[in-house]
Structures are given as structure tokens and as C-alpha cells.
Backbone:
């Protein structure tokens, strides 16, 4: 029997297919775009194609992400908080603090020693510091978002992006470009700005990390610069990032699909 | 616009009640509509007040009185608050300030606040509310009396505040020519005490396992019932709730069939139409069984010391004084109602809502009650996104589920 987890986020839709031994058979990350129904189908078809399976072999589908209720043939829909928490334990069972930064949400999840969610905090009011924020900044800098993670190398780390709003931060970046500020310094400033917001969320659920293992999931975790900045802002704590951080939520959903269907 | 709204509301509720569709909430809402009509009739003596004003004392003197936030909430419930909030911002108010107060100020700017005969400000629960009253006094060029509410219930403070209430009465006499009739005052206080006693019964019944109350039935209840105190109608509303809850418990029925999780709602509810209570009950099996302000924190008013009793009542409200006192009250409620979690809407721009957030969260967590802090503007629906709230509520419920 096979179990599918699908995470419909604001920027990407991710799917993970596992078997009864919880082995990952295939993963898929596709842009969500304007039609999430199409993204659901594309992500599902991609993992089925990669694994050589047909849909009728799926014992259960669990959906998560903001579009979770759009998956029609699901066993159930579960929030990103629960799914990311479940998913990260498959990669790093020792995780006690999980930072997940997606397209429009950033969240920090506190887990107990048994892997249960005991608290969580999410970004307030706006999407500053999320994937959308990074997208807007990459656009202003005219750089590829996937390259941003390496662009701050060699920066002196003295620049601060102080604006608390994505639009204002973008205009701040435009002004810095106009002033001839090197891109690496701007990117470094942006990374530290995201890190500062993220650490505020971490402190809300765990005022003292107390040796807790910290992991990160979500698309922004692919940005090494942000991960480094978060690690520094946490006082040098090492931040664990799985190979495919985008798929952690979908992995959690797949594991829940197996669990809840009695697999 | 508002008069029409309250007339239609009263008419609809009267017809529904007369056709056998009475419910405690409808009987309560009918009184809300009638209060609205009295405020907007243009024929009653009206006083705009702060939240902790003695409405029963004012009523006994023939004054229709109301706290200003009531209008902000009403505008929100009609879905019309946005344009009034904007009108306030157009004259320079920050969009980060409390939208109850921006809506009221906008209503005054647009000529939608009934002209009062005088105003009674209160220094508790917030300085923003007092500022609105002061602005309204300037706007209408009417006299204002400010009650300085002491923060602790010491004998000295009660005497100090009781003296202020006497001064307030003299102020009203000075402005209106009305002197308090001792018999009417005693009658009002007798009604207040009767209502108090029935409210205590209602809250006691609501503690039942499972609770007979639905999430919506007692929303905004405690704070609005303060406006009806001293009247026979308040007694009738309270009796309707008590009898219905008793009936449900006797019949083995509950407010809703599912009660997986019991919740404590901190501060005020969201005033515009929103799906939160329905989501909580229908999809997540969670029910709000107690609101922070639905509690009796004061003793019956001693008819031989009415001003002292009213002073003690105003000082006793949980929003007055230190946060420690407020947290202690919330912990008491959480234990008494055996809640699984608490929701704090943290109304934008409200220092009561946001300033105490961390201490409240820590205080409840210490007794094993998790808290969901939302970031919500309780009056301005334009800032509400259902998907964001759904995720937070659902994740909170999933978290409580994993703790069971």
C-alpha cells in the first residue's frame, strides 16, 4: 500500500509518496500558480509517474497547506503545523524546535520529547520575512531567487534593512542599489532581517533553547544565507535542514495518511 | 441609518419571539435593539459614558446611558464600520489605534452619534476610551465628568470613589435639573441585585460538563448586560437564559452535541460577522464556554450604602488594576470551567489586548492551559482573512487533541 501527502502552499505545491515502510518513493515540487487544482494534479501525477504507480494503488491521501481543503479525494486535511512537525521527525527525530518559512507564513513549532506539538507561533499581520518577501527582494535586486543563498558571501554584515513591511523594505533595497551598495551587503542585510523576525518567533515559544535541536523546513530553508543568519542570530546554534526542505510538510501528511488509514 | 437598523432589528426580533421562536439570545438582542432605539430616538436624555460608569444609577435618574464602544461594535456588526474608521483616519488618526474608538469617532464626524446631554468618562479600562469621550465632549460642546477609578479595592479607595459617584450625581443634577429619587434608586439597585443573583446562576450552569451554553450565546454578554442593570428587563433576560440552561441540563441536552474541547475567550469577541465560532463548533468540536468578562466580581449592592456598593463594583472589574490580578482571574475561570485552552484575540491597537499578552499566556500555561494568540482587529472586517485564522485555530485544536 502507498500513501500520498500533498502540501498546497501559496508558492509551491509539494507531494511525497511513501510505502508501508515509510520509505520515500518519490517527491515533487511544482509552482502553485493561480489554479491550485491544477497544481494538485500536477504534483500528484509527477510522484505517481516517478514511482511507476497508478492512483488506484494509493491507500490514503492527506492534504496540508493553505489549499488543503481543495484536495477532493483526501482522507483528511491537517494543518501545516502538525504536518511539518510530523515530517521533520522523519529526518531529524531529535528536533525540538522547528522553523518553517513558507511562501506567506513563517512559523516556529515547539515539540516535546515525544514529538508532540506543545506550542507554536506564526507571523503576525503581514508576510514580511517569508518566501514572498524574498521574492520581492530578489526582483528588486534583479537576481535569481535560487542564487540568493550564496550572494551574501564575503559581506561585512554591517547593513541593516530596518523596514518592517515588504513594500517599504523593497523601496529601501532600491535606494541602497541606487546608492551603489554592493549586492552582497544588501542580501546579507535582508537575511539578517529575516533572521531577526524568525528569532522573535523562536523566543515566543522557547525563551531558552536549552540545548534543543533546531531544524528548518519550507522553501526558504533552501536559502543558505538565511539559514546561516538564523543560526548566527540564535547564538551559533546549528540549524538542521533536510535535503528537500520544501517537502517536509508533504512528508508529514504522507505519514499521517499511513497512520490514520491503519497502514 | 442607525435608528432604522435598530427599528428593523427590534421588529424582526419581536415577530420571531411572538411566533414562538423565542430564545434567550433573541430576548437579549431585543433589549440591545431597544437600547439602540432609545439612544437614537432624539427624545431621550442621553449620556455617553466609559465602560465602568454606573448605568443603573444613571438609568434610575432617567438617563439613557451607554458606553461608546457599543456603537463601534454595532457598526461592525452591520458591516458598516469601515467608512467610519476611514473618516477618523482622514482627520489624522493612526490606523494602528483601536478601531472601536476610530469607528465611534467616525460616527461623530459623520453625524451618526446622537447628541448627548452630558458625558461621563472613566479612567478604566483604557485611556483611549477616555480620549474618545473627551473628543465627543468637545465635538458636541457638552459637559464632561470624569470618574477616576482607583486600581485597588481598599476601604479608602472605595470611599474615595463613592464620593466621586456622589459628585457625579450632583454634576448630573446641575446639568439636567434631575435629582435622584431615593425610592427609584433603591428599586433600581434591587433589580441590579436580582439580576446579579441570576447571572451568577447562569455562569454556574455554564460550568456544567458538558456545558449547556453554545459558543455564541453568551458572547459580549457580561459587558452589555451592565447597560441593562437596574431594570426589570435585565431580570427578564437573565431569567430567560437561566431557565433555558436549566431546561437543557434537565433534558440531558447540551448547547451542542460535540464538546471535545472547552475554551476560554479572553477579552471581547470579534464584532463583525465571522465564521470562527461556527468553525470551532462544527468542524473542530471546540466550544467557547466562558468569556473573561462573563463573571460576577462584585457583592450585592447594599441598599443602605448604594454608592459604596457601586464603587466596589466598578473597582472590581478584571480589567482594572495590575495584570497580575487579571491573570489570577483568568486562571480562576480556566479552572472553574475546566477549559482545554484559551483564545486571546489581541485586538489591534488595544493595550489591554496586546500589552498583557505575554503575561496572560505564561500565567495560563503554568496551569496547563495553552493559549492561542490571534492578531485580529475586532471591529474592522477589512483586516480579516479567514484562511489565516482557520489555520491558526485548526492547528491549536490539533495541538489540544494531541495532549488529550
Residues:
Amino acid at each position: 500500500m502507498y500513501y500520498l501527502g500533498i502540501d498546497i502552499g501559496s508558492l509551491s505545491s509539494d507531494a511525497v509518496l511513501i510505502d508501508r515502510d515509510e520509505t520515500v518513493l518519490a517527491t515533487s515540487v511544482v509552482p502553485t500558480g493561480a489554479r491550485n487544482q491544477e497544481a494538485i494534479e500536477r504534483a500528484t501525477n509527477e510522484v505517481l509517474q516517478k514511482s511507476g504507480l497508478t492512483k488506484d494503488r494509493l491507500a490514503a491521501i492527506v492534504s496540508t497547506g493553505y489549499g488543503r481543503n481543495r484536495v477532493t479525494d483526501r482522507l483528511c486535511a491537517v494543518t501545516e503545523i502538525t504536518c511539518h512537525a510530523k515530517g521533520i521527525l522523519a529526518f531529524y527525530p531529535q528536533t525540538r524546535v522547528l522553523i518553517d518559512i513558507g511562501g506567506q507564513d513563517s512559523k516556529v513549532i515547539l515539540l516535546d520529547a515525544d514529538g508532540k506539538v506543545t506550542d507554536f507561533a506564526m507571523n503576525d499581520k503581514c508576510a514580511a520575512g517569508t518566501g514572498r518577501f524574498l521574492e520581492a527582494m530578489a526582483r528588486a535586486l534583479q537576481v535569481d531567487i535560487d542564487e540568493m543563498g550564496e550572494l551574501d558571501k564575503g559581506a561585512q554584515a554591517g547593513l541593516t534593512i530596518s523596514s518592517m513591511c515588504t513594500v517599504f523594505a523593497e523601496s529601501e533595497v532600491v535606494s541602497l542599489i541606487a546608492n551603489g551598495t554592493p549586492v552582497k551587503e544588501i542580501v546579507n542585510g535582508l537575511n539578517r532581517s529575516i533572521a531577526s523576525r524568525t528569532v522573535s518567533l523562536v523566543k515566543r515559544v522557547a525563551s531558552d533553547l536549552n540545548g534543543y535541536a533546531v531544524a528548518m523546513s519550507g522553501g526558504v530553508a533552501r536559502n543558505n544565507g538565511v539559514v546561516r543568519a538564523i543560526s548566527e542570530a540564535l547564538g551559533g546554534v546549528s540549524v538542521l535542514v533536510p535535503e528537500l526542505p520544501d517537502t517536509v510538510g508533504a512528508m508529514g501528511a504522507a505519514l499521517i495518511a499511513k497512520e490514520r488509514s491503519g497502514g | 441609518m442607525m435608528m432604522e437598523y435598530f427599528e428593523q432589528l427590534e421588529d424582526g426580533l419581536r415577530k420571531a419571539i411572538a411566533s414562538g421562536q423565542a430564545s434567550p439570545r433573541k430576548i437579549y438582542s431585543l433589549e440591545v435593539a431597544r437600547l439602540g432605539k432609545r439612544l437614537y430616538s432624539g427624545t431621550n436624555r442621553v449620556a455617553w459614558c466609559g465602560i465602568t460608569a454606573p448605568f443603573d444609577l444613571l438609568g434610575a435618574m432617567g438617563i439613557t446611558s451607554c458606553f461608546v464602544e457599543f456603537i463601534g461594535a454595532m457598526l461592525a456588526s452591520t458591516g458598516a464600520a469601515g467608512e467610519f474608521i476611514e473618516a477618523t483616519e482622514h482627520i489624522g488618526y493612526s490606523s494602528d489605534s483601536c478601531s472601536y474608538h476610530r469607528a465611534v469617532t467616525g460616527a461623530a464626524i459623520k453625524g451618526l452619534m446622537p447628541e448627548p446631554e452630558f458625558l461621563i468618562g472613566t479612567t478604566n479600562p483604557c485611556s483611549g476610551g477616555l480620549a474618545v469621550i473627551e473628543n465627543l465632549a468637545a465635538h458636541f460642546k457638552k459637559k464632561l465628568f470624569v470618574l477616576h477609578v482607583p486600581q485597588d479595592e481598599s476601604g479608602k479607595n472605595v470611599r474615595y470613589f463613592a464620593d466621586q459617584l456622589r459628585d457625579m450625581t450632583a454634576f448630573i443634577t446641575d446639568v439636567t435639573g434631575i435629582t435622584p429619587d431615593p425610592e427609584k434608586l433603591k428599586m433600581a439597585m434591587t433589580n441590579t441585585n436580582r439580576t446579579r443573583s441570576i447571572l451568577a446562576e447562569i455562569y454556574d450552569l455554564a460550568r456544567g460538563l458538558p456545558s449547556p451554553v453554545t459558543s455564541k450565546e453568551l458572547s459580549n454578554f457580561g459587558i452589555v448586560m451592565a447597560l441593562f442593570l437596574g431594570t426589570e428587563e435585565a431580570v427578564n433576560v437573565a431569567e430567560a437564559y437561566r431557565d433555558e440552561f436549566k431546561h437543557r441540563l434537565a433534558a440531558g441536552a447540551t448547547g451542542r452535541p460535540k464538546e471535545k474541547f472547552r475554551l476560554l475567550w479572553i477579552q471581547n469577541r470579534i464584532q463583525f460577522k465571522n465564521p470562527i465560532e461556527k468553525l470551532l463548533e462544527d468542524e473542530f468540536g471546540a466550544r467557547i464556554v466562558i468569556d473573561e468578562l462573563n463573571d460576577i466580581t462584585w457583592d450585592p449592592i447594599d441598599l443602605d450604602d448604594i454608592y459604596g456598593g457601586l464603587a466596589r463594583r466598578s473597582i472590581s472589574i478584571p480589567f482594572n488594576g495590575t495584570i497580575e490580578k487579571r491573570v489570577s482571574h483568568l486562571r480562576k475561570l480556566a479552572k472553574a470551567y475546566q477549559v482545554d485552552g484559551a483564545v486571546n484575540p489581541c485586538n489591534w491597537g488595544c493595550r489591554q489586548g496586546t500589552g498583557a499578552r505575554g503575561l496572560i499566556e505564561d500565567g495560563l500555561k503554568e496551569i496547563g492551559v495553552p493559549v492561542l494568540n490571534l492578531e485580529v482587529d475586532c471591529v474592522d472586517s477589512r483586516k480579516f482573512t479567514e484562511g489565516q485564522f482557520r489555520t491558526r485555530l485548526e492547528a491549536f485544536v490539533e495541538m489540544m487533541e494531541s495532549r488529550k
